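3.2 Worked example (two chains)
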Amino acid sequence: MTVIDFSAFIGRLATASGETILPFFRTSLSIDDKSKTKDFDPVTEADRAAEAVMRRLIKANFPQHGIVGEEFGNEREDADYVWVLDPIDGTKSFIGGFPIWGTLIALLHRGMPVFGMMHQPFIGERFYGDNGSANYKGPSGERRLQVRRCASLAEATTYTTSPLLMNERDRAVFGRIEQGARLSRYGGDCYSYCMLAAGHVDLVVETELKPYDIAALIPIVTGAGGIVTTWEGKPAQGGGRIIAAGDPRVHEEALGLLNQ
């Protein structure tokens, strides 16, 4: 089977997860803290229910495939095809009632992300890509996603979810990016990468990401003409310290600052 054969099924996963999540949004829901440290790492009934629904659909349709999920662990990670699921990326925004969150669905083939989707059911937006192209579907219709040109960091708009999520050393290093950028903003989670793919943001810099935080976003950004790597310039699907840029010139300049 080709990736194209899977695209309709990924749409089904997005629809099912969205229908599961929305009844919980902006309601009084129970919140657990997964963190074993002082950092708050929330998880809700909506996270667990949505991932459970997607896992059931995958197992019913592709029992030979592997699954990596944020809430229920990993199964058959050595399979040729592996699904990487984050039912609600941006749970802190979700529990605050802000619609800056999304469901991330990635399909890996032999360890490489070959298709990714970010679905935001409250707004009704989908961003999806296969490394060769990326597209948007939402209230304003459908269109191709394309990163914008940006000649230098001095002209760039950069995003990170929060510098407080970085350790002290990485936060200091990130400060070099902020000092050099035209505009630096916080927040966004998965939306920052989608806005980069759509040509509204030039650079996203993050740390401490897990595979399910980034795997679905790589084919979207890459398909729109952008670049996603680690701070060391390596493939990003394993997570860690991540940098995404729309223009290779900004990527190269930012990498230089991060590795001084």
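3.2.1 Second chain
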Amino acid sequence: MTEVEFVVVEPDNRNLRELIARLDEELLARYPHETIYVVDFDDPKVKEMTFVVAYLHGTAVACGGLRPLDYMSLNSPSMELKRFYVDSGCRKLGIATRMLLFLEEKAIAAGYGEIRLETGIKQPEAIGLYVKHGYRPIELFGPYVGDPDSLCYGKILKQG
């Protein structure tokens, strides 16, 4: 198994920002700019988010974030998976699966009962990952309502 270290980082972490910039480049190649839902790092609420960077042999190769949602679903607080990305040269090594499970554990430990996410219709690899790990299609929510390029998924987390 590939040796990967997952580190919770602050929003201003240089490695996190570089990985997110690479993610944005990939998304811009697939979608119009207005359908890319970035994280506003100038928003004070970004401090409420949990960001993780995955390091393979000391090199930052993946990132992901969790953002608390302002509403309850099924009487349980929810988080949104954001900015989930694995460098193209490190895909198919199991890093995405392990990072997703790591983030789910972080959400459970923080008392959240559900993770929701948005992905695009032109990202079959991402859709496959989420479905494989129990995420099911849900109605578009929040800023994604009405976006024909968006698909939303959710997963109820098992506590304890």
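3.3 Remarks
The two ends are 26 Å apart (CA to CA).
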